[in-house]
Specification:
215 residues; alpha+beta; SMI1/KNR4-like; 5-stranded antiparallel β-sheet; 8 helices; 8 strands; 31% helix; globular
């Protein structure tokens, strides 16, 4: 449900509650395996990425995080903020998402991709009068068409894939008691989106999807 946004950036002393380094290193190692995964990309990873054995970047500095939060006018959800502190951007999560944006490129969807909002708002057969008992369902019982497109204009765009419309979004209108924002995977092949309680949940599910695609 919509709540009042917290305008104060989270303190830099906030402990890391999610094991991002472990997850991202496993993901890197598997993507870079020339037998298991890398051949699925349209081109090999750059030599410097293969040498480093890491698809990410150095973590965002406190100043970069503060600048992003100031530009957005709100603090970031904890698991996403922790991710950026660990890796300021990321290459392919799966073959459908080309990269996660660094702090300097992250921004509101209405500013970065207003056309996507126009394409997805009512008129596409996706009603916004989804009752709470249907909307607040996550996991296998969720219906991907049960989204509220009115939220799109206020969502944060955190990924980019040229030409497909597939994107990860964070929704500040729906937050958990510990400050996480709902996360969406909006895909061209879905009649809506797959929604998660947090960015951490989305990334873990995408990692499972990445591995499952190869099983």
């Amino acid at each position: 449900m919509p709540i009042t946004e917290n305008e104060e950036p989270a303190p830099e002393t906030h402990p890391t509650a999610h094991p991002w380094r472990d997850l991202l290193q496993r993901w890197s190692d598997e993507w870079l395996d020339p037998v298991l995964h890398e051949q699925e990309r349209h081109a090999p990873f750059p030599d410097e990425i293969r040498a480093a054995r890491r698809l990410g970047a150095p973590g965002a500095t406190p100043g970069e995080l503060a600048a992003l939060e100031q530009r957005l006018g709100t603090g970031l959800p904890p698991s996403y903020r922790e991710f950026l502190r660990t890796s300021d951007g990321w290459l392919d999560t799966t073959t459908q998402i080309a990269r996660l944006l660094p702090t300097r490129e992250t921004g509101w969807l209405k500013d970065l991709d207003p056309e996507l909002i126009g394409n997805r708002c009512p008129g596409d057969g996706e009603p916004d009068d989804i009752p709470d008992e249907m909307y607040y369902v996550y996991g296998d019982q969720q219906q991907s068409w049960a989204i509220r497109t009115a939220y799109l204009s206020g969502m944060l765009k955190i990924s980019h894939t040229p030409g497909t419309g597939d994107v990860y979004l964070l929704n500040p209108h729906v937050r958990t008691p510990d400050g996480e924002w709902e996360a969406w995977y909006l895909a061209h092949w879905l009649p809506g989106a797959v929604r998660y309680r947090s960015f951490w949940d989305l990334m873990n599910d995408e990692y499972r999807s990445f591995r499952g695609d190869q099983d």
